[in-house]
Amino acid sequence: MSTSSSLHELTAAELADLLARKEVSAREALDAVYARVEEVEEDLHSFVLLTRETAERQAAEVDEARAKGEPLPPLAGVPIALKDIYCTKGIPTTCCSRILEGFVPPYDADVIERCRAHRLVFVGKTNMDEFAMGSSTENSAFGPTRNPWDLDRVPGGSSGGSAAAVAASETVLAMGTDTGGSIRQPASLCGVVGLKPTYGRVSRYGVIAYASSLDQVGPITKDVRDCALLLGALAGHDPRDSTSLPDPPPNYTRALTGEIKGLRVGLVKEFMEYQGVGVAPEVAEAVKAAIARFEELGAVCREVSLPHLNYSIPVYYILAPAEASSNLARYDGVQYGYRSADADGIIEMYRNTRNEGFGAEVKRRIMLGTYTLSAGYYDAYYLKAAQVRTLIRRDFDAAFEDCDVLVGPVSPTVAFRLGEKADDPVQMYLSDVCTIPVNLGGLPGMSIPCGFSPDGLPIGLQLVGPPLAEETLLRAAHAFEQSGQFHRRRAVPVRQRKGRRSAVVREG
Amino acid sequence: MKLTPEQVEHVALLGRIKLTEEERELFTTQLNSIISHFEQLQQLDTSGVPPMSHAVPVSDVFREDEPGESLSTEEALQNAPEQARDCFQVPRVIE
Questions:
Q1: Global pTM?
Q2: Which CATH number fits the domain that encloses residue B14?
Q3: Taking CB atoms and an 8 Å limit, are A386 and B41 in contact across chains?
Q4: Percent of chain A whose pLDDT exceeds 70
Q5: Which residues of A carry out catalysis?
Q6: pLDDT tens, position by position, A122-133
Q7: β strands within A16-93, DSSP E
Q8: Which residue range forms the structural domain that includes residue B33?
Q9: Residues of A in contact with B40 (CB under 8 A)
Q10: How many domains in chain B?
């Protein structure tokens, strides 16, 4: 069915099938992926590090094991791109910050151990907003990533590199993290599938912390089946993360039945308009068309209102920076990473190191969190926000008494232009208005393609479930996806130009 | 509540960040713009509502007190900007 030159375009499920039948080797699949990277990476900049030596060794080990007839996990030999936020033993990890330049973790994150156990092949580390703070990947210390559907536009963020790499077939699978929408929003803007699991479903051990009560790791993939497969590989209890849920994860692919008759779907009014301001017309239209499709498939749809969602943005921008200001205190130039050469005494060393090592958005959030937690302001800001967080979660709990799934847009607009919101933090923050409430609630949320704007830019549909309802989300998403063609459209990112140099491929 | 450039400077010291004069001006404007969005929370009556610090129904998670493997001194120090005698080295703290 495929020549080795198009292997990178396959889904993980398709590739895994060919690998298991020995029709292709892991090495051939990897070569196809790197050939694609050579072709498009100069334009996209999805990766900050390509781990070719590691990947070639991993692929060779899988091929050898398969030749010997050893039993292998289903995804063995499938290429995966890793957001540069997971500690990877022996492979540099920077969180796209100058303050972690040169840092080589001495241990693996839990999710990286799981990837290794599943014999996935590491293509490289992907670009992101510094410390996952941002919605466009423009806050990376190493320069922005471009959207494969339109190179003048952002891929979303903070997991923009992972989403762009999947959309452009520079990898087969990818992983991101999501604190306020950082998996779902870039997945939406790049026209791929992204899932933020229930808080606690996937271990945060070894994942560089931004806001610990909100951060979750999840898959970014070409379709829903791949999403279910990768979630199955990542999920599970980890005693090293005290917020890790003990419930054993189910076999998520069994949820993909195609059957959603009677599924109760709620369209969230506050996702369609925040404080009275509606989402872009093309986004509203695509979401309404998706609702109509769900009804055709036998779901029962209604509109629901969760009034406290109108307070999500201030709640998030109090709580997340407060947690960040504490989490990022560790970057002080003592144990790892960058240290300013200009240091007269220890306090000056801390301040100069952090001033030179952090970018503007990170400093802004550290300042914000330090301020709201400081003496005299704690009750007015932090405590108040934590109380409103309870009200938001109660709104969700009430809605889930009558609904199995809540839906709405992922992002109020399609991908915006590079630089468009870079100087206006408040406008940038508003782009996460539909995704933030889901993190505050600790709920599972998913983005799947549901249409294209007149300019050909992808639009995502968000599905949200009660705690641990990943199977319901996957079942609904799969039924929707299989009833249409959106997931088959692929971005064509190559800019035609003369004298293109090949992308730099280096190993850490 | 409105932040003055002097307060911004104080917060920067607390957060161990050093701002240039330009950054202090810019952050004063931007932080005030962000904080003005927070005021709307005061409209809500939250008396008697418990604060939510995280979303999972687990607490007091303990494990058996069994010794396990940990990083060697060499591994722990491998990323240190400066080290001496198996320790992280910092500028002089006590004069």
A1: 0.96
A2: 1.10.20
A3: no
A4: 96
A5: 83, 158, 182
A6: 999 999 999 999
A7: 47-50, 79-83
A8: 5-43
A9: 311, 314
A10: 1
